[in-house]
Design a protein that fits this description.
The protein has 343 residues and is α/β, with parallel strands linked by helices. It has helices at 5-18, 59-73, 128-139, 172-182, 193-205, 210-213, 229-245, 255-262, 272-277, 323-331, 333-342; strands at residues 22-31, 41-45, 50-52, 77-82, 95-99, 107-115, 120-124, 143-147, 161-165, 186-189, 216-217, 269-270, 292-294, 301-303, 311-313, 316-318.
């Protein structure tokens, strides 16, 4: 979608009001020739949809991939896109260098920042502890809702939500069963170990999958010993803050996506490591589950998939950033395979 900088900011504000996670990418420096301009902006959603303009066919897929990682870990990132030979050895700390090789021979510096919705907490119950926990979470700026256990359903949870079941003997089993079905990023049950074992055992007998029940934290909250209902609320909230800060609360994703997000260094090389490691990657995917590969002709990191023009040679599949690189490889594959072996 073609938008100028101000339209992008307006769209960003609208997405934030809707509570949608996205990343805002801004070009802070360019080295011509390049199709992008300094100050150009784009929005990238967690599903990889791009609105705006950040660069051409070489830069765009890299920015989308890195933006999805920024959204996943909640940490902004400054990217330097281009050939490592262009930058020399004096690259400041904190900049992620991503080798790309385009016919234009331009380079970009792009700042990507996450815009994440306020943490969403659903507290199920009507006890004083449940009300206290909801109030404390709201003081942190969280989107906290208190739902009576009798009217609670999986539809109340929503995306990326945390759920604390504090029904305290009034329909615990039904509330946990509904919450488990929604697959929240956190599910805790306020109660003793004995009560928790009883509730989870009952649900297991009803056929609720064990891998879902294993996600239930019981007792919910940090262990502070014998405490008042206010202190229990603090203990639960403290555990949620601790888990969020550690990046432990992530929505369920396909295994391949989770591995790619976890290994953010697979294609992003920072500082001197970018120079020393860029030539060490194989042009083929590292293993059968890898999501990325390096073009053996130009050294650009690409997605290891059908869109990257795969070619099989000597039992190994290679991927390419553009048709020209693939054509060069097909004309003399031995030259590029030999060069990789020497590196």
């Amino acid at each position: 979608m073609d938008m100028d900088g101000w339209e992008i900011l307006k769209q960003a504000g609208e997405l934030e009001r809707r509570g949608q996670a996205f990343a805002l990418a801004t070009v802070v420096w360019r080295q011509g020739p390049s199709s992008s301009q300094q100050g150009a902006r784009a929005i990238i959603t967690d599903e990889g949809e791009l609105q705006g303009w950040i660069g051409g066919a070489c830069a765009e897929p890299v920015v989308i991939r890195e933006a999805q990682r920024v959204i996943a870990d909640g940490t902004p990132r400054l990217l330097l896109l281009g050939s490592p030979d262009q930058f020399g050895a004096a690259i400041p700390d904190g900049i992620t260098v991503v080798p790309i090789s385009c016919q234009s021979e331009g380079a970009l510096e792009v700042y990507i920042e996450p815009v994440l919705p306020a943490p969403r907490l659903v507290v199920v119950g009507r006890s004083p502890m449940a009300r206290t926990l909801t109030g404390l979470a709201r003081q942190l700026g969280w989107d906290a809702r208190l739902v009576d256990g009798a009217g609670f359903s999986a539809a109340d949870v929503g995306d990326r939500a945390m759920v604390v079941v504090a029904t305290q003997g009034h329909g615990d089993e039904e509330a946990v069963e509904q919450a488990v079905a929604a697959r929240p990023v956190y599910l805790g049950l306020v109660g003793s170990h004995r009560r928790g074992a009883s509730v989870l055992g009952y649900l297991a007998d009803r056929g609720v999958p064990r891998e879902q029940l294993d996600r239930v934290r019981v007792p919910a909250g940090l262990d502070l010993g014998r405490t008042s209902h206010r202190e229990i609320a603090v203990a639960v909230l403290a555990e949620l803050v601790q888990l969020r800060a550690a990046g432990a609360l992530q929505a369920d994703r396909p295994a391949a996506d989770s591995e790619a997000a976890a290994d953010s260094g697979a294609a992003a090389h920072s500082g001197a490591a970018a120079h020393s490691g860029a030539a060490a990657h194989s042009g083929a995917a590292a293993d059968s589950g890898a999501a990325e590969a390096v073009d053996p002709v130009c050294g650009m990191t690409v997605t290891a998939g059908p869109a990257s023009r795969p070619v099989e040679h000597a039992g190994v599949t290679y991927y390419f950033c553009r048709a020209g690189c693939r054509r060069a490889f097909e004309q003399d594959p031995a030259a590029y395979v030999k060069r990789e072996t020497q590196c």
